[in-house]
């Protein structure tokens, strides 16, 4: 569905189904060859070429993303002590002050996690030099029980930790979890997962990142490969060949149904968005009318 929406936003609506097929072809290719490696998409290489190798500049850019905390740094550190204990046990080879917190703040950016509670915090790293500091992200784990197609939908920090280890080309370092409530007066238990923040994190923009439909094809294919390599990983290693074979059969059998379902969900999403805008506009108009009275 996201491929259809991205294609529409760029005026490439007729390319939506072929781009979905690019994604599926990447998925099938990885299922057929679990050792498959592919070069990065041209768009990715172009973005990477702009990355700086100056560590101080990288840290400075990351530090600007840290918005003020609602609690003191000391209280923040106390709340995430369980994560620090996990890392001390898991990474005993690191210096004892490796995870000493130097800075922390709220994180407000994101795509799928735009509305989730997130934090960045900076730790000492392997040496006392500022350029060796390490940035970590702490991200809320959402309760997904209302999404019926997800089997393990409870808010468990194990879910994203396991999934990123299976799906990412390079799993995050220092992955762990925190169960706490950092907002005063809120009794609800919250769960977060923690990982090292990527030095050169970059969000693709639907409207500004893609110059051509071919670039969206390439990104979709690469995402399909990544999913195909990770989907069957660590589920049933002794039966991995059989599992990949069954997934290939299933994708072939459901090909037309998937396209139809994606099209229907896209239309429903667009209709819901239009209705949402109408209701928001009506509420704004009502608020303005009350203010004038």
Q: Can you characterise this structure?
A:
With 293 residues, the chain is α+β, with helices and mostly antiparallel strands. The chain folds into two domains: 2-46 and 208-292, no CATH class; 61-196. The chain has ten helices and five strands, in the order ααααααβββαββααα. The protein has helices at 2-9, 16-32, 42-48, 55-63, 73-79, 81-90, 158-167, 213-230, 240-253, 255-292; strands spanning 101-106, 118-123, 134-140, 176-180, 190-196. Strands 1-2-3-5-4 form a five-stranded antiparallel beta sheet, sandwiched between helices. α1 crosses α2, α2 (16-32) packs parallel to α8 and α2 (16-32) runs antiparallel to α9 (240-253). The longest helix has 38 residues, at 255-292. The protein is globular and about 55 Å long. The two termini are 44 Å apart. The relative contact order is 0.17. The model has no long low-confidence stretch (mean pLDDT 88).
- The chain-level structural class is alpha+beta
Contiguous uncertain segments of 5+ residues = none
Number of E-type strands:
5
Outline type: globular
Radius of gyration from the alpha-carbon trace, in angstroms: 22 Å
**Main sheet summary:** 5 strands, antiparallel
- Major β-sheet strand ordering: 1-2-3-5-4
Measure the end-to-end span: 44 Å
Q: What is the average per-residue confidence, as pLDDT, rounded to a whole number? A: 88
